[in-house]
Amino acid sequence: MNRDITAQFIKMLTNLDHCLAKAEAHATAKQFNVDNFFGDRLIVDMLPLSKQVLICCDSARAVVATASHSELPVLGDDPKTMADLRAHIGKTISYLQGKLEADYSQYASGRYVPHWAGGKGMDGHTCVHEYGIPNFYFHLTMAYALLRRAGGEFPAVKNAGQGSQPQGRNGAAEADDHETARFGDWTLDLTDRVLRDQNNQPCPLTPSEYALLEDLMRHKQQIRSRAQLEESLYAWGEEAGSNIVEVYVHHLRRKFGRETIQTVRGMGYRLSGDV
Q1: SS3 of 106, please?
Q2: What does the pLDDT read at residue 174?
Q3: Which structural domains are found in the chain, ordered by start?
C-alpha cells in the first residue's frame, strides 16, 4: 500500500462524479427527473445505483484509514438525491486528499472491523488487497453499468477497427429506437424514463410514480398483485409501508384520471382496457 493507491482512488472517484454530472445533463436534455437514476438497479435483487456509489466511497475510506492507522471518518450525511451522492463523493475525495502524504509503511498491521461483520475484523493486508480494492472497483463498475444502461452519453469501449456509438438500454445504438409503451395519448419512454403527452411534452413523475406506471405498462391487461407492485417500488428505493401501493395508485389516478387504473377486488390492479 502506498500513496499511489490513494491517488488512484481520488482519480476514479473524480471520474465517477463526472459520470453523475453527465447523468444530470442527460436528464435535463431529455426532460426527466435526474433522481430517477438514484434507485435504479440492474435487476431487482441487486443494489441500486445509490448503494453502488456509497460502497465505492466506503471502500476507499476503509482502505486508506486502515492502512494509515487512522480512525474512519464520520461523514454525517444520508444521501437521498443525486446531488447528495455527488456531495458525498466530494467529502470522500477531500478526506483522501488529506491522506496522500500519510505513512503507509505499517499498513499490513492495521485492523479493520466492518460494521456489518458482527465484531469480526481483518488485518491491514487483507483489508487493502482482498477486500477494499476489489470491492471498490466492483461497485465502481456496477455504477458505471447502471448509468450506461440508462442511455447516458459516456465514453464507450471501441471494438477493434470500429468507432463507438452511445449505447442504449439494450445495447443498440441510441437514436430513435427507444423502447416505449403507450396508453391513450401518453407515451412512456422506457429508455429515458420519461412520460410524454401527445405533443411530446414531458409529464413530471416522481421516481416511485414512474416505477409503478412502468410496471403496469409492462404488464398491460394483466392483474398485478400488491406484492408485485411493492417489489417494483422497493427496487427503486421506496421505503416499505402498509399502504404504499395505494398511495401511488392514488397519485397516478389524480394525474391521469380515476379510470386509468382499475382495482380488481381481492387481486390487485391493472391498466384500464380503454387506455
Answers
A1: coil
A2: 39
A3: 3-149 (1.20.120.450), 180-271 (1.10.10.10)
Question: Within 13 Å of residue 255, how many CA atoms lie on the same side as its CB?
Answer: 16
- Grid cell listed for 218: 409492462
- Of 258, 143, 255, 263, which Cα lies nearest the Cα of 202? 255
CA atoms of 131 and 124, how far apart (whole Å): 10
Could you give the count of Cα atoms lying within 13 Å of 101 in the half-sphere of its Cβ?
1
Q: Model's pTM, two decimal places? A: 0.63
Helix or strand run (H / E) with residue 176: none
Q: How far is CA 71 from CA 13, 56, 87, 197, 198, in A?
A: 21, 18, 21, 53, 57
Query: Hey, what's the cell of 107?
Result: 499498513
Question: Given pLDDT bands bounded at 50, 70 and 90, which one contains residue 116?
Answer: low
